[in-house]
Each structure stands twice: as C-alpha cells, then as structure tokens.
C-alpha cells in the first residue's frame, strides 16, 4: 500500500520534472530566460485577473414566507376613498323647476338665466319639440345597443348626412355624448410616439384624450401664435426622422376656459409650413360663428378641407345632446372601428338625433338668429364695460362672456370663493342666474377663474340690462 | 369556461392563416399599384393617418364581412324590428341603404325588460316632461343643468339599489372613464378582472394608478395577486400602496356569466381593499325584484363600496349612475369632471328611467314590473336549455339573459349571420377584437318582450342554420318522451 502511494508520488514528480524540462520551459523569449516557475507565475496572474472580472457575490434573494406576507397584510392601512369633506364640498347647485330657457324657475321664483349655453334660443322651439315627440312615439327613448349591434337607427344616418351637408365635408360620425367625442377621437388617431402640440387652456375632455393617447404632448401659451410658431419650429428642427411620426395641433375654436377665439388663418398657415394636422374642437362655435353658423372656418374664410378633423358637442347651440366629428372619408371611416367611445358605447337616443336634424334645418332657414345673438353680445359688452372690480377677458364675438377679477387675491381658491359670493347674491337678491367657473381636482388648466355668462339669441334687451345693473351693484358691494 | 377542442382550434387557425396570407398578397399588389399612381402633392411630408399594419385587420378581414355589422334599423329596437336592406357595388367596401325593410325577430338588442319601444305608462310621462323641460338643458350639472327631475332620479336610484346616495351622468361609458380617476390616482393600485369592459380599462388607464389583472372570475387567484401586491408594495420604491380597488362586473357581456360576488367580497374584506361593481347588464334584469346581482347572490349592498350601472339596457334610456355612501357622492359632485364639464342628462331620458323604475317596483299601481321580471327569467332559462338540448355550445349561467353561442371559425361568422337574416332572425355575431381571436361567437340577448312563439320560431331558425353551419359541437340530447316510452315498455 505505502509503496503504491510512493510509486504514484514518484510518477507525479517525474511528470513535473518533464514539464519543467520541456522545450518551452527552456525557451528564451525576447532575451528573457523562461524558467519553469515563470509558467506558474503566469498562471497565477491569469487566475487573479479572471477573479477580478467576475461579478461580486450576492447572497440569493429569499422569498417572503407566508407568515411574513400575512403580517404585512395585517399592518397595511389603506387611505380612505375620499378626502375629508369640507364645507365647500357640501354646496349644492340650484335646482331648476322648468326648461333652461332664457327665463327659468328656481325655488318658485322666475329668474333670468345666463347659465345655459342655449346660444340660438332653440330650447322650447315648437318645430324641434314636435319632431322629438314623433320620434319618441316611433322609436321610444333609448336605442338599446351600440352602433355595431342594431343600435344604428335610420335617424342616426340621416343626422350624419345632414351635418356633413351643412358643414360641406364628405362625411361625419355621430357620438352619443358631447364630452366623449373629443376624448375618443384623439386616441383613435394619436398613438405612442406621435407629437401633439396643444394650447394650455383646453378643457378637461381634451386633456383626458391626450393622456389616453400616450403621445408626446407639448403645450404652448394660451392663444399665443408666436409661442405656437416657436414650439413648432423647435419640434421640427429636433426631429429629423419625422417621416413616420404623425404630428397634430389641437385647439378649440372658442375656449370655454377663457372665451378667446383661436386665430384659424394663422394656425392653418403654420400647419402648412411645418406639415402638422389640425384637430379643432368647435363645441361652442358651431352654429355661432360665421355668416351662416358654419363655425370658425367660415368666419375666417378658410376652406373647410384644410382642417383635418373637426369635432363638436351638440349640447350648446343645437340644444340637444351628443356630439359629432367630421372630416374626410378616411378620417371618419377609421373612427367607426377604432374610436372607443363609438364602438363600445350605446348609440345616441333617436329623439336627440331628430332634434339635431330639426335644429340644423332651422339654422339654415333662419340665419337672422345669428345677427340677433351678435347684437345681444354687443349690448352685453357695452353694459359690462364699467363693472367695478371685474374686467371682460373674452373675445368680442364669443357668446361666452368671461369676467375676470381685476385684482386677484393671489390664490384661485379664494378668488373662486369671492366670485361665488357675488353669484349667490346676484341670484338671491336680483333673480339673475349666473355662474362662476368651477374646476375639478383633475383639471390641469391654470388659467384664471372667473364668471361666465352664456348669451342667447332668446334674451331680450331688458334681460341684458337687468344682468348688467345687478352685477354692477353687487360687485360694488362685494369687491370694493 | 370555454373548452376548445383541438380539431376546431387547428381548423380555425388554418382559416385565419389563409385569410392573413391572402390579405398580405392583396396588400403587396396594392403597394405596386400605388407606386405607379403618384400620390397627391398635398400629402407630401405628412405621415399617413394609418400605418400599414395598423388597419390590416380592418381592410382585409373585417371589410369582407362588413354587412354583418352595423345593420341599420327603421323601427324601435323592440322584439320585432325592421332591418334596412343594404347593397354593395364594390364587394362590400361601401354599403348603400335602400328604402326596403325586412321584419325580423330581434335577438340582438339590449332590451331586457322590454322598455325599448313606446310603453303605455312611460311614454306619456316622457312626452310631458319633454314639453315642460325640452330635450336638453344645454348646461353642465353644476351650473344650470340640475332640474328637479335629476334630483328625483338620484333619490330613486339610491333607493332602488339599496345605497344611501347616488349620482347620475348622461352616458355609461363616461361614468367609468371619469369616476375612476377621481377615486384613485398615482400611488394606488387597480386590480381588474381580465375580461372587463373597455370603459373600465380606459378609466383605469386614465387614472394614473398601477393596473394588475386577475384571472376571470377566480377569487383564489385574486387572493394570490392581492397578497403578492400588498407584500411587495409599489414597484421599485416598495412603498406601501395608498389604496387598492378591485373592479368586477355583474354580468360579463361576452360570456353571459355572473360574477362570483360573495367570494370576491369576502376576499376583499379580509385584505381591506375597496370594491367597485359595474352592473351595466345586470341591474334590472336579474334578481327577484330586479335589483341586480347583489340580490340574486345574496350580497348586502353595504358590503360593496361603489356600485355603478347604466340605464341603457334594462330601462330603455341612456346614461349611467354611481351609488355609494353620502360622503363619496358629495366628493364626486365636488370634483368629478363628468359632473363639472359634461352636459347634464336629457330630461326626457331622466323621466323614462324614473317611470321604468316605478314600473319595476310596482309603484305605478300595476304588477307589470313583476310580470316582466318573471317573464325574462322564464324566457332566458327556456331558451338556454333548448339550445343546449340541440347540441350548441352555449356559455353563461342560468338566469342570465345573455347567451353566447360559440362559432370559432371565421367563415361561420358571416354564414350564421347572413343565413339567419335571410330567415328573418336578426342575431349579433362578435369576433376579434372584442373576443379572443379563436373564440368568435354569436350572442343572443333575450327580452321580456319576446313571447313564447317568438322564442320557438327563433329556436327553429337557429337550429336549421346551426345544422347548415356545423356549429352543433355537442351531442344532441334525445328528447325526454323517447326515454320514458322505453321505460314503459320494460
């Protein structure tokens, strides 16, 4: 046994000697005599280098045990679903007891109503009411299904053709609710990686659509064409591979957060220069601007084909509900399968679609109602020019007359409280119903708050004088 | 759950592969033709609105069977409808209306309690309210859009559903999209069922919270997901979640299944998470007095934190509601964007819901409500059992008025739809993307307005067409009287 081990050791030692005596071990490389021990040292250095290049040792992660998970679940305390309720949250809006026309009844008293966007005075129109009644008797109230599954009623198709004919576009598509129009249209066309340039004063519907589209959103200063031009310039310069990226400019015709009107001729010039597409939200300008009420494009004399996508809610001038989107055939057809508010939602109730058709017919037959609206707005402007403490901040042609505080208190919350005091007193003491702008917690718009008056063609001169006198009186008491 | 046999899966995949190959071939030829024709100068420098593959499905697959969808009707969506005939000159690319209509049995509209057409109690009230309040308020709820009809409706809905307070909106889709971002934001977690409706998915995405999905109708998987998420906390920072909401639906409209509500509520209570129940299809249609899945499955409404529903399906109107505690509703009225920025619900539609709820509760002085509820339950159970006896693969639980019949193969979709229309029965077929690619189906919605004869006619036609299309995947059950006569002989 011992001799076998001795034999093995001698054999191993012989092998080592052979290696050391190998020709390599006696080589002379570059004048350096290589001995056997050099081989060992080279090997050692190689091993050290190898270890240095390995990652440092990390102990493996141990998953949590069942007991630990149980403990964590026990300890976890969720926040309540709603924050503590403050006094201002408990305020209830005034309850109307009759139709929201130029005169309405609140709490049994008749008041002058400047809070409904009934621009053409079509609320309570006989012809429209008759068409609604015949529609209700034929079709019932709801349409009981989305457009793809027997919810398409022939009045919907008639309404779409009528609106397209009125606007001068090839086709249009009907949505069942005003605010869902814009936040379904934007994600249908704008996907991740596209660029959208948008005014900072747009309303929540547009903001939600932009967020859902996951595109890159760049804001420019409210209604400032120089800011728009510099933003477009910067974006086109930086993005050289802009062939596959779609670029959009989103603006509103009449901004509901400020009453300003977007200068469409400037925007179209910039869009053609920098190759952007325009999405225009005409909720408050359809049926109001232009000689025959066809909206912003007619007012500025821009051919309607230059605007790629026009959306509008019908809950304002047309005195019904729902919305539409119009544009080229490609634009409209694409939405029929990929716009979520169209595909996954029940269609517009048929009586509202027939009301829309009657309203458009009325507007086409009686363009004098637009001149009446314009003279009312002028009269109101004259009357409100000397209110102490409040200044008019909207465009002279806008049917939304926006009053701002001349001297802000510093925070929009206290501004709003002050304005609410004014509107409450005006309602209680003078029976005039006006409203301040209330913002949601989710709204990103930072424009100043104010009082909005919605002028209608159905208001008489006495109504307008009444609201001016009342505001003058109350503002003098509260603000000065 | 759907059991997809291997042979059917193979043939379906083969069919789709063939359609895809032909579509690509056509696209290739289209590219060559377009290269010869010069594109107009206006579009130079603009990226196309739809890049090549984005609407491949629309152009090459959907357009071939476009006539099965969006069929216009010329009457109220009642039990029998007048479907407008359409023709096409260019192989289904564009469809043109004619003025001819065919009277068909309506098995596709969501008209569960039969309030769709003019109703003897509801319509006079609706017309009165139209004359008094006109068809819109042109104003948002918080400004001048709240009439006494709206407050009456909110109190009535809260009473009907069994919660302290409610808030209503003009559209069901907007209800989900605008409420979920208010209740939860960044730092919160939403756990939603894998087959939830698109409005819930959009609301969850718009809120900014993290979203996780649990397997459809599987309370044990929900528990696993909850344990894992609470233990891990927010991704990367591992801070605890601010709050967690679980969103489920009462009846899933593409499966016809009821939610396993008692188990899910038990899991949620154990882990202190909030629950949101979307009863779009189940309110008014199931339950002994029509109060929805809570009544049917014996769950106390106080255990569900937020109950949402729509008025489109069972009440024949439009709009949606949320019912919850008084504080939550007050907070929503203060800050919900749909309350502050969206036109309020049209007053005649509000009156329709008020009258419909009064009929269901029996407060109109008759027992039509109880009759309707009994009839829809009988109709659904009768129809479903007959279909299963004939050998069709029908999904859904008993008592649910929604019953999908599996088709699988893409060619059977237009075959079933067109053949049924030829025999005067209007059905709805659903394919990708509303359902998974291989699981196309035809969906039947039963209404209380269907009479027994209507249902028998519908069954005959579906059976004949089912034989032609080859969708009777299960063996036919022998009729009962044969087995009884066998017993008598022995």
Automatic annotation (TrEMBL), chain A:
Any one GO cellular component localisation term in the record: endoplasmic reticulum membrane
Cellular compartment(s): Endoplasmic reticulum membrane
A Gene Ontology biological process term: sphingosine biosynthetic process
Signal peptide: none
Catalytic activity: L-serine + hexadecanoyl-CoA + H(+) = 3-oxosphinganine + CO2 + CoA
The protein's required cofactors: pyridoxal 5'-phosphate
Record pathway: Sphingolipid metabolism; Lipid metabolism; sphingolipid metabolism
EC numbers: 2.3.1.50
Membrane topology: Single-pass membrane protein
Family membership: Belongs to the class-II pyridoxal-phosphate-dependent aminotransferase family.
Function: Serine palmitoyltransferase (SPT). The heterodimer formed with LCB2 constitutes the catalytic core.
Protein known as: serine C-palmitoyltransferase
From TrEMBL, chain B:
Stretches that traverse the bilayer: 6-25
Swiss-Prot/TrEMBL GO biological process terms: ceramide biosynthetic process; sphingosine biosynthetic process
EC number: 2.3.1.50
Membrane topology: Single-pass membrane protein
Alphabetized GO MF terms: pyridoxal phosphate binding; serine C-palmitoyltransferase activity
Stretches assigned to the Aminotransferase class I/classII large domain: 103-462
Cofactor requirement: pyridoxal 5'-phosphate
Listed PROSITE patterns: AA_TRANSFER_CLASS_2
Name of the molecule in the record: serine C-palmitoyltransferase
Species this chain originates from: Musa balbisiana
């Amino acid at each position: 046994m011992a001799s076998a081990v001795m034999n093995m050791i001698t054999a191993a030692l012989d092998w080592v000697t052979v290696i050391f005596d190998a020709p390599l071990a006696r080589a002379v490389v570059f004048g350096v005599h290589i001995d056997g021990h050099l081989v060992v040292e080279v090997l050692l250095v190689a091993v050290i280098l190898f270890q240095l290049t390995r990652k440092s040792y990390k102990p493996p992660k141990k998953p949590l045990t069942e007991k630990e998970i149980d403990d964590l679940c026990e300890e976890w305390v969720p926040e309540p679903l709603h924050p503590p309720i403050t006094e201002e949250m408990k305020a209830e809006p005034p309850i109307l007891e009759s139709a929201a026309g130029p005169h309405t009844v609140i709490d049994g008293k008749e008041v002058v109503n400047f809070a409904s966007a009934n621009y053409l005075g079509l609320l309570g129109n006989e012809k429209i009411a008759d068409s609604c009644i015949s529609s209700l008797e034929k079709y019932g109230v709801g349409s009981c299904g989305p457009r793809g599954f027997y919810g398409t009623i022939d009045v919907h198709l008639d309404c779409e053709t009528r609106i397209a004919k009125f606007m001068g576009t090839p086709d249009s598509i009907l949505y069942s609710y005003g605010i869902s129009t814009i936040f379904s249209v934007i994600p249908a066309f704008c996907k991740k990686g596209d660029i959208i340039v948008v005014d900072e004063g747009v309303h929540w519907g547009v903001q939600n659509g932009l967020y859902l589209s996951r595109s890159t959103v760049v804001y420019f200063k409210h209604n400032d064409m120089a800011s728009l031009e510099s933003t477009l310039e910067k974006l086109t310069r930086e993005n050289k591979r802009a062939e596959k990226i779609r670029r959009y400019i989103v603006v509103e015709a009449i901004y509901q957060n400020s009453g300003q009107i977007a200068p469409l001729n400037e925007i179209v010039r910039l869009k053609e220069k920098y190759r952007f597409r325009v999405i225009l939200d005409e909720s408050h300008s359809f049926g109001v601007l232009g000689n025959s009420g066809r909206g912003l494009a007619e007012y500025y004399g821009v051919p309607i084909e230059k605007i790629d996508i026009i959306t509008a809610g019908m809950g304002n001038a047309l005195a019904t509900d729902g919305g539409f989107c119009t544009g080229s055939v490609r634009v409209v057809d694409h939405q029929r399968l990929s716009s979520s508010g169209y595909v996954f939602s029940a269609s517009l109730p048929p009586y509202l679609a027939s009301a829309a058709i009657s309203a458009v017919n009325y507007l086409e037959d009686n363009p004098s109602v637009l001149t009446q609206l314009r003279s009312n707005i002028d009269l109101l402007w004259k009357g409100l020019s000397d209110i102490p403490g409040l200044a008019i901040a909207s465009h002279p042609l806008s049917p939304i007359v926006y009053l701002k505080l001349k001297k802000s208190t510093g925070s929009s919350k206290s501004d709003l409280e002050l304005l609410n005091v004014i509107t409450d007193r005006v309602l209680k003491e003078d029976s005039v119903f006006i409203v301040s702008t209330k913002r949601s917690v989710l709204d990103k718009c930072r424009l100043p708050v104010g009082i909005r008056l919605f002028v209608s063609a159905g208001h008489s001169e006495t109504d307008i004088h009444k609201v001016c006198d009342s505001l003058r009186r109350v503002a003098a008491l509260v603000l000065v | 759950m759907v059991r997809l046999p291997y042979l059917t899966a193979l043939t379906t995949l083969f069919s789709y592969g063939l359609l895809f190959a032909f579509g690509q071939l056509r696209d290739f030829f289209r590219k060559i033709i377009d290269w010869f024709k010069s594109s107009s100068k206006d579009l130079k420098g603009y990226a196309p609105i739809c890049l090549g593959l984005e609407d491949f499905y629309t152009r090459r697959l959907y357009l071939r069977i476009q006539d099965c969808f969006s069929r216009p009707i010329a009457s109220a969506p009642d039990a029998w409808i007048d479907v407008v005939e359409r023709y096409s000159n260019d192989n289904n690319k564009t469809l043109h209306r004619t003025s001819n209509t065919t009277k068909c049995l309506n098995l596709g509209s969501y008209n569960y309690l039969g309030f769709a057409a003019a109703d003897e109690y509801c319509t006079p009230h609706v017309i009165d309210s139209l004359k008094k309040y006109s068809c819109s308020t042109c104003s948002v709820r918080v400004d001048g859009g709240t009439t006494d009809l709206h407050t009456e409706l909110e109190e009535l809905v809260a009473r009907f559903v069994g919660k302290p307070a409610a808030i209503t909106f003009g559209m069901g889709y907007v209800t989900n999209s605008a409420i979920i971002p208010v209740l939860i934001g960044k730092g919160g977690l939403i756990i939603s069922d894998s087959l939830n409706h698109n409005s819930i998915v959009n609301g969850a995405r718009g809120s900014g919270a993290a979203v996780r999905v649990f397997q459809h109708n599987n309370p044990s998987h929900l528990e696993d997901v909850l344990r894992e998420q609470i233990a891990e906390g927010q991704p990367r920072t591992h801070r605890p979640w601010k709050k967690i909401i679980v969103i489920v639906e009462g009846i899933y409209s593409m499966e016809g299944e009821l939610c396993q509500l008692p188990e899910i509520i038990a899991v949620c209570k154990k882990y202190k998470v909030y629950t949101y129940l979307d009863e779009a299809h189940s309110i008014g249609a199931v339950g002994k007095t029509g109060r929805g899945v809570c009544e049917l499955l014996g769950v106390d409404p106080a255990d569900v934190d937020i109950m949402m529903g729509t008025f489109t399906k069972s009440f024949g109107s439009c709009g949606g509601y949320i019912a919850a505690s008084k504080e939550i509703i007050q907070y929503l009225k203060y800050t919900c964007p749909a309350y502050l920025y969206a036109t309020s619900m049209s007053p005649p539609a509000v009156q329709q819901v008020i009258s419909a709820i009064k009929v269901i509760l029996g407060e109109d002085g008759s027992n039509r409500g109880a009759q309707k509820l009994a009839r829809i339950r009988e109709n659904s159970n009768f129809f479903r059992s007959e279909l299963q006896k004939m050998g069709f693969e029908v999904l859904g639980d008993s008592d649910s008025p929604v019953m999908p019949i599996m088709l699988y193969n893409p060619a059977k979709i237009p075959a079933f739809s067109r053949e049924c229309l030829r025999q005067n029965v209007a059905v709805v077929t659903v394919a990708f993307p509303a359902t998974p690619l291989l699981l196309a189906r035809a969906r039947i919605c039963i209404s209380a307005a269907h009479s027994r004869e209507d249902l028998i006619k519908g069954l005959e036609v579906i059976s004949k067409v089912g034989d032609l299309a080859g969708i009777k995947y299960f063996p036919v059950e022998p009729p009962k009287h044969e087995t009884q006569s066998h017993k008598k002989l022995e």
